[in-house]
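Study the following:
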Amino acid sequence: MAGTDEEAVAADEALYVLTAVLLTPAKFPSVLGDDYPEACAALQLAPRADGYGLVLGQDGEGARWTVVIDDVSLVAVAIASWDCGMEYDLSPDERTVVAALPGWPLAVAVAAPDVPAPHDPGPEVADQTPLAPPDTSVWGPAQRRLGADEIALQWAIWREQIGDDFFPAPAAAGAAPEAPEEAPQDDEAAPRAPKGHAGVRRVLAEAWAYVDTPPPLGRVRSSFAPGDARTLRADGPGWSLVARTDDIAFVLLDEEPGEVLPVGRGPELPGLLEALDKMAVRPL
C-alpha cells in the first residue's frame, strides 16, 4: 500500500473516475514498455501474475491520481461497458486498492466536472514524483509502440495500401527472408520497405530467437482477428512487429522515424507467425 498517498485521496473524499485501463501480461499500455514487467516498472509495481487495473481520476481538489487495484475483472467489465456505450459506475472496494499513485501515466483528454482543472498533487500530499505520460512528441520507443498499436487497431486501412503485387515472387525454399522492394508512395504516410532491409532482417531474426528463448512476459501477444486468424504483436529492443497469422506483417524501428515497413509472407513468415502465436500471451 502507498500509505500517505492513499490517505491523501481519502482526505479529498471521492475519486472522480475518468477512465481505466488494464495492466496485465496480455493487455497493457504498450506506450509504457516493450513488455509487461517493463510496463509495471514504469509504475514501480511488481509484475503480479494476474495483473492490475488502473483507475485514473481526480480528487476533490482536481489533483490527478492513479489508483492501482487487484480486481482486474472489475476494470475489465467497466471498460467493456464503456466501449459498448453503457454507463458503469466503477467504484473499487478499498480492500482491492494496491496503491494510489500521484499523477497519470497516460494522457487523458477529459476532466471531471465542477472541480479544478487537472493538476499534479503537491508535495505536501504526494510522497513521490507524480506519474507523467511518456514523451511522444518525438520519435522513439514510446511513439514507435503507439504506431504499432494504431496499425493493429486499423489493420484493414493499412493493409489496403499494400497490394499483392507489392511483394516480389517468393524465394526458393531455404533462402533467407527478404523485405520487399520499395513501394510507390502516393503520400508521405504510404508504407515502404527497401529490399534486403537490414533492420527488418534483424527483427525477423530476433523474433525467431523468441521461439527458442522465451522473452519477458508480454513481449509477444496474440489477440482476436476476423475469421480464424489472430493478430500478433511482438516487441523487442528498438522494434515492434504487428501481423495477422494469415497475412503479412508490419515492422516499425526506432532508427527509422515514422516509417512502416511491410514484410511479405514468403517462405519464412508463415512459420514464424505460427510459432509466435503458440507461445504468445492471450487475453482471458
Summary: The helical segments are 4-11, 36-42, 72-83, 141-153, 155-160, 198-212, 269-279. Confidence is low (pLDDT under 50) at residues 1-12, 171-190.
